[in-house]
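Aggregate trends can hide what the representation actually does to any particular protein. The sequence in question and its structure tokens are set out directly beneath this paragraph.
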Amino acid sequence: MRRTSDLRTLQASSLTNLARLRRDASVIVAPGSVRQLEIQVCHVTIHLLNLWTNFVRAYYLSCMLEAKRVRGDRIGVANPGLTIDQAIGRAVNQFRPAAQPRANGSWDRRAEPAWHDPNNLLAIGAAESFSNIGDLRAAFSTGIRLFIDLPVLRNYFAHRNQQTSEAATAVAPHYGIPATKRPSRVVLSRPLKRPQPLLLDWMDEMQVTIELVCY
């Protein structure tokens, strides 16, 4: 996903990718072999967090471009007109003041903030005086655990070890799911009083959040 002067473009692209992952996830609900289930859940979970991370990065860069919101007004910022490298640099230096770009002005992607964490976007947005900062705070104050728990499961599927496994299964009780289940079964289980698997609930919550911050 790339920065854009119109958040409708970013929203449409993000939701298209999310719909594709939802189709992949719907196949997992009635899996074949255990090995195939693990492969499919791993794919969807990792790509779901990647989608969110890429969305937030592109969203920040679009805000710095004073992008038009879905409702029609433009986002105001304290320092408009920056290049992509300059905007990334301001985000990096928000958390790492001594960090320096490469000789050509670009930044190592590993130096960038953890875009998946909404608290980082809120901190940067406040520092850059985003005119929509109040709406961002409202969008991330709903109490959902998506942005806390999805990275935990992603880490498990990307780095399987005892520590990540224990962290992943510890997520389960927050949704009324037994912690005795394997992480792949946790995300395919229905949370207490919910009609669909946790993974699909997370996708719904991500869609609503994307729509809220772009509106």
About this structure: The two ends are 18 Å apart (CA to CA). The chain has one domain: 7-214. The chain is about 60% helix and 0% strand. The CA atoms of residues 43 and 88 lie 28 Å apart.
